[in-house]
């Protein structure tokens, strides 16, 4: 059996190995992760069941008799991240630019949140609603998603909200792009080591990427979190495991119905309450009726 170096292979969720295409990388600091060529890949809404892939057994097997990989673990993780961090597609770039512009405008507007609550740069809920609205105005099928999963033997229950965009321009396969406004903070750990912190700091705070990018990135960071805790001889929390991270964005989720996008001419118009003319006439008639006094015995 021929062993393939970890530098030249990427493990997907379905345990297949994909050769990294030799395309020129784009020098973008905020882009994230594509392992397949843009022409040949798409992504559709993924509905994961409770049988998530668990890499713990595979990693334990790799640790036995593979000391070279273990010695170079952090170097390999950084190389893998560097090799994939500068890849993007035109759709993701378009979504990313709109998202960043919306967040920047919210930051420049002051500390007043649209919901009325004082919050630096706006609260997460209002920011997601505004980003979703701006993407809809740009002609994209965007919605706020809510994932919810039950507890199992190895992970606790939980729920998470994020934004996605569905693109059907490719007739062969629907493309789904995930938007997470607080991506880097999802992987920060209080008692992590220096190597893990370096890896996390290279992540963008705002993630915009296809399903394939997110899956590969989760594998890199969750493997790094496990290695970090092993080196510090500490227990890895269940919320740091790959299955839990997959549940956040890739579990069966509900696309919440969002408000229809406003045109530029009607963006500042306040909607007036509508009354039925039948109801108004009926109320007027009732007010004019003579109601005799009835003695109650």
Order of helices and strands, N to C?
A: EEHHHHHEEEHEHHEH
Low-pLDDT windows of residues = 4-46, 261-280
Report the strand count.
7
Chain-averaged pLDDT? 73
Main sheet specs:
5 strands, antiparallel
Key structural traits:
alpha+beta, 7 strands, single chain, two-stranded antiparallel ribbon, 297 residues, 9 helices
List the helices and strands and how they pair.
Blueprint: E1 10-11, E2 17-18, H1 56-63, H2 67-71, H3 73-84, H4 90-108, H5 124-137, E3 141-149, E4 158-167, E5 175-180, H6 194-201, E6 207-210, H7 211-231, H8 242-250, E7 253-256, H9 277-288
Antiparallel strand pairs: 1-2, 3-4, 3-7, 4-5, 5-6
Helix pairs in contact: 4-5, 6-7, 7-8
Structure characterization notes:
- The chain has one domain.
- It has nine helices and seven strands.
- The protein has helices spanning 56-63, 67-71, 73-84, 90-108, 124-137, 194-201, 211-231, 242-250, 277-288, and strands at residues 10-11, 17-18, 141-149, 158-167, 175-180, 207-210, 253-256.
- The N and C termini lie far apart (100 Å).
- Residues 39-71 are annotated as: Disordered.
- Residues 62-71 have a biased composition (Low complexity).
- InterPro entries: PDDEXK-like.
Task: Describe the structure concisely for a colleague.
By secondary structure, the chain is an alpha+beta fold.
């Amino acid at each position: 059996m021929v062993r393939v170096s970890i530098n030249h292979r990427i493990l997907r969720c379905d345990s297949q190995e994909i050769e990294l295409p030799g395309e020129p990388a784009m020098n973008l600091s905020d882009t994230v992760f594509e392992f397949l060529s843009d022409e040949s890949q798409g992504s559709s809404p993924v509905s994961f069941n409770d049988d998530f892939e668990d890499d713990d057994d595979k990693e334990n097997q790799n640790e036995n008799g593979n000391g070279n990989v273990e010695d170079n673990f952090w170097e390999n993780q950084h190389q893998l991240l560097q090799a994939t961090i500068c890849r993007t597609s035109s759709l993701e770039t378009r979504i990313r630019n709109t998202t960043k512009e919306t967040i920047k405008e919210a930051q420049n507007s002051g500390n007043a949140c649209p919901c009325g609550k004082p919050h630096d740069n706006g609260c997460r809920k209002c920011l997601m609603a505004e980003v979703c609205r701006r993407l809809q105005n740009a002609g994209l099928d965007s919605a706020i998603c809510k994932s919810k999963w039950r507890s199992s033997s190895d992970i606790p229950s939980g729920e998470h909200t994020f934004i996605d965009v569905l693109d059907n321009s490719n007739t062969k396969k629907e493309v789904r792009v995930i938007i997470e406004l607080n991506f880097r903070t999802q992987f920060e750990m209080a008692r992590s080591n220096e190597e893990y912190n370096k890896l996390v700091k290279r992540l963008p705070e705002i993630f915009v990427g296809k399903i394939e990018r997110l899956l590969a990135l989760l594998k890199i960071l969750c493997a790094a979190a496990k290695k970090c805790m092993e080196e510090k001889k500490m227990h890895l929390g269940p919320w740091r495991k790959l299955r839990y991270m997959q549940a956040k964005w890739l579990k069966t989720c509900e696309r919440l119905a969002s408000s229809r996008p406003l045109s530029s001419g009607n963006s500042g118009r306040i909607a007036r309450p509508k009354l039925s003319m039948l109801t108004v006439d009926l109320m007027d008639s009732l007010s004019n009726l003579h109601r005799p006094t009835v003695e109650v015995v």
